[in-house]
Amino acid sequence: MLHWPMPHLRKIANRKIVNIYMTINEIQDEIIDEFSAFDDWMDKYQMLIELGNSLEPLAEQYKTPQNLIEGCQSRVWIQADFDESTRQIHFTGDSDAVIVKGLVSLIIRVMNDHTPDEILQSELYFIERIGLREHLSPTRSNGLLAMVKQMRVYALAFKAKENN
User: Fold this and answer.
1) Set 72, 108, 132, 148: catalytic member
2) Which of 106, 126, 125 is nearest to 32 (CA)?
3) Confidence of residue 137 (pLDDT cuts 50, 70, 90)
4) Residue 145's Cα: distance from chain center in Å?
5) What is the CATH number of the domain that holds 55?
6) What pLDDT sits at residue 21?
7) In the 3-class helix/strand/coil scheme, how is 37-53 assigned residue by residue?
8) 123 belongs to a structural domain
9) 3-class SS of residue 20
10) Is residue 1 situated within a structural domain?
11) How many domains is the chain partitioned into structurally?
12) Distances in Å between the alpha carbon of 35 and those of 29, 95, 121, 124?
């Protein structure tokens, strides 16, 4: 039997990953608050599963080798598009593993719809503070770091393109 407050989880899982009015740090703080509602790591894993289930599937056209994240045991794709009018990067992603898909959902929620500079200057402290680093297997932890690294590479590329 699960010990997590289902309505709270459903509200979190149904939240869109677009946070255009929040800073990266505000989004991280919100995630930390959401995860602090659970004492048991089985509940937190269940939350990751629910977040993964709520992530919109990535269109097949974006499941390409260029979007495949190296360093992940599971297959993970991250697609990035740059909106020149807002100077923001919009991320979409997917995975073939349910918990990893939850991680994709979290990292997209934090980085989505921010400028390249905001992404490049951010310190992603939520990973440590919610205990992900210590509770993920080494391969999942490496995969999460590979996702973050790739999203920063996209931000760097869009910044360089914008400056030319």
Assistant:
1) 72
2) 126
3) confident
4) 11
5) 3.90.1010.10
6) 75
7) CCCCHHHHHHHHHHHHH
8) yes
9) coil
10) no
11) 1
12) 10, 22, 24, 15
